[in-house]
Every structure is written in C-alpha cells, then in structure tokens.
Amino acid sequence: MREGGGRRLHLREKRCRGASEAGLSVMARRVLKLASLAAATTGVYLYGNKFLDPNDFGVVRVGRAIATTAVITYDYLTSLRSVPYGSEEYDFLKSQIKELFASFEDAPLGAASLAQVHKAVLQDGRTVAVKVQHPKVQAQSSKDILLMEVLLLVVKQIFPDFEFMWLVEEAKKNLPLELDFLNEGRNAEKVAHMLKNFDFLKVPRIYWELSTRRVLLMEFMEGGQVNDRAYMKRNGINVNEVSRNLGKLYSEMIFVNGFVHCDPHPGNVLVKKCPASGKAHIILLDHGLYQVLSESFRMDYCHLWQALIKADMKRVQKYSRRLGAGDLYPLFACMLTARSWESVNRGIDRSPVSASEDIEIRSNAAAYLPQITQLLNNVPRQMLLLLKTNDLLRGIESALQTRASASSFLNMSRCCIRAVSTYQRSKSHSLYRRAQISLTEALSLWQINLYELFLWLKGSRLGNWVIALLSRMHHCTH
C-alpha cells in the first residue's frame, strides 16, 4: 500500500455501513466498484438497444425461485450498473484500482447469480482470482425467499398434495452461508486440510488479509472443465484417471468425513496436467455450499450403499426406511443409483447403464412425480443436497463416458468399510473388540484390492496372456 494526494489506503474501514458491510475494507469496496465498472460496459439488450431489466419479468423470477433452493434473480444485471461509463467517478475509481493491482481484467472470468470472478495481479506479482459479490444480492435474497414462500403456500392451497415447502427451509438455511465469502474461505481451507493425502487435489489458497464477507481473493488456478473430453485429449489427460480420482474424492468426503462439497458442476471442477509428474490434477472451486452430515445419518448412508452394491435387498429396505423412505424404498434406491429397480436387484455393478435403461428412468420420473415429491419431503434435509451432488457427478461421468464403472463402486466400498470400522472402534471399549474390527476391516479391504487386481488383469493384455497360458496348461494336463 502507498500514500498520495491525501488518499491513504487502509485494509479496513473505520466505520461500518450497515451490518452486511461490517469490516469491509477500502480495497474490497473499490473492487466492488470495479465490478460495477466492468458490468457497465456490458449488458443485456432487447429491441432498440434498451436494457432488459429482469425486474420487469416477474415470471422469470418466480420460475427461478421455485426451481432451486438457492434462488437469486437476474437483478445483478442492472444492479451493477451503478457508475456511468466514462464519468469522472469512473475514471477516479479506475485510478484507485491501479494502486491496488498491477493489472485487473475488467471482463469477468465467470459470472453467476451471486457473484462474478475477475483475474488480477497484485503489486507484489501474485496472480489472484477476485470473487466479487453483486451489490444488491443480500437485500434482494430475502425478498426472493419471501416471494418463494408465499407462492408455494398459494400453490399448496390449490393443490394439497404439493409438498415443496422444504425448498424454503433449505433456501433460508443455505443462502446466508453462500453470501458470506469468509465462510467460503474457511470451507476451502478445511477441505484442503481434510483431504491433504490426495496429491491430485488442488484447492486455491485464500488471501485472508485482502478478503471480506463480500470480496474473496484467492490463488488463481486454471484448467479445463472436468467434462471436457476434447481438452483432456489435447493435453494427454487420462479420462479414466480423472473419473476415478473424482469418485475417490467425493466418496471420502461423503462416507468418511461427512463434509461434502455440494456444487460439483463442471465450472467448479477443473482438471490440469501437472508438467512435473504428468498426472492430472483436480482443482476444486467455489466452496460456498457444503453439507455437514451427522454421524448417524452417515452410518446409515454407508450401510445403504454397501447393501446396494451387494444387491442385499433386505438391508436396502432396512436402511432406506431408516433414512425416511418408508414404503417408497424401491423408488429411493432408484433415485440414489439412477438405475432401474431391475438393475438394483441384479446388482448395480454387474452391468453398465444402457440407453434403453436411461430412457426408462426418464419416462418413469414423470409418472412417479407425486411419489418423488413425497419422498423428498420425508427424507432428512441432509439428503437433499446429496441427491443434487449425486446427479451432478453422474452428469460428469456420462460426459466422460465412464459412468458407473466398477472402480467407482470399489472406491465407494472402501470408504464405507473404513467409515463403519472407524465408527465401531470409537464405540468399543474393549481392546480385543477393536482389534477384531481392525482385522475384519483389513481383510475386507484386501478382498476389494484382490478383486480390483482381477478386473485389471482381465482387461489387460498381460491378463489375457496369463489366462491363455493357464488354459493351455490345463488343456495339456488333460
């Protein structure tokens, strides 16, 4: 920081402008203004070069409110245009930004309903990503939630079977967390520490001294989107390796740690080849929304997935009911696995998803909408974001053409075994019992490793050669 012209830059302001602005630094405020400048030069135009103000289109806002649990309208498109382009204030703010950054790209790298991200270089040479919250988001969000609640109540009066009030509950709980960028920074550091043993995982470092509740500065990282097969091919990245590591990452978060990144859409998960090792790194971005799973929920969920993988229908029914599915447990199993009930009974690891099965699932979804609605209303709230996470991960697997591979189920099995064993040991006061649990765990993991080796040999040239050799030897002895 430097002084000049009576304008000394402070890291924190001396006074607050409202509770939502508490602790906001001068630099953060200027970055917010810079986002306004960037947005002022771009806009959405409709006939006759007139700005399309989304406030005029209530139907759009209502549709978004009903569709998601973290609803924000398109208001940011107009709210950011607070400084006229080319005005004296514009030029003044631009000059102030130059004192804070060696360079700052006006065009955002990405923009969403809550914020937009700009690439910048600090005066000390560090390249950073600057995430800036849209100015009117906090004020508008409470109005949107209220609008959603009123509309859902009206719809429920007309259609008593309509059970989507949980959308309001989830929005009220999750939105304040997503609007607090300091919370996002803490989540990023927590998951980076929690999964530090995964050398393929990269989480951007947070620059706390330059961050506030509405501005987050972090290490700049770039790569291709995780569903971009063409990018991976151009850069020599193994698609199966990426899919396998992504499965490991989320299995560890869900089953072992119970702290789950719940927005793994392709824009938040990047891949990049490490020049030194040649291996693919997975870069995890946007840590605003995490689901914390209770211990009892996590154990039931582990047992349920173990039963689904083993096609143990009695245990599938038992643990589905414990998770609130009741008599709708077959539908619940199909929703979790995105497989038909026939495939679930046969074993979801026995055969890949076919095109006909995909069509069957999509057509049945509409037919079972009332039951799906009832089920979503009955399961624990923790399950809602997990269902969303499962769907996003399956979308990535489909794009990479690695969906429901055997390795993903094996990794899930490993994590479930480790999680259940750790829980059992924590509840046991007997040294002998803990040793017995550890031995059972080791044997189970060894069996999975042996089965994985068998699958690898079966699919490799070496394996085919060994099988052929053993066949000849068997033929000769007879």
Unreliable residue stretches: 1-25, 35-82
Form type: globular
Strand content: 5-15%
How much helix, percentage-wise, in residues? 55-70%
Number of beta-strand segments:
13
Helices and strands: which structural class?
A: alpha+beta
Specify the number of helices.
19
Q: Specify Rg, calculated over alpha carbons.
A: 26 Å
**Main pleated-sheet profile:** 5 strands, antiparallel
Alpha carbon gap, first and last residue:
86 Å
Average pLDDT rating:
77
Description of the molecule:
56% of the residues lie in helices and 10% in strands. Helix 1 (26-40) crosses helix 4, helix 2 crosses helix 5 (137-158) and helix 9 (239-257) runs antiparallel to helix 16 (381-400). The chain starts with 25 loop residues before the first helix and ends with a helix. Strand 1 and strand 2 (50-51) form a beta hairpin. It has helices spanning 26-40, 58-67, 76-79, 88-100, 137-158, 166-179, 181-194, 229-234, 239-257, 295-310, 313-322, 329-337, 341-346, 355-367, 369-378, 381-400, 406-427, 431-459, 461-477, and strands at residues 45-46, 50-51, 101-104, 110-111, 115-122, 127-133, 201-202, 215-219, 224-225, 259-261, 269-273, 280-284, 290-292. The chain is built from 19 helices and 13 strands. By secondary structure, it is α+β, with helices and mostly antiparallel strands. Residues 1-25 and 35-82 have low confidence and may be disordered. Strands 3, 4, 5, 6 and 8 form a five-stranded antiparallel sheet that branches. The chain has a four-stranded mixed sheet with strand order 7-12-11-9, with helices on one face. The chain has a two-stranded antiparallel sheet with strand order 1-2.
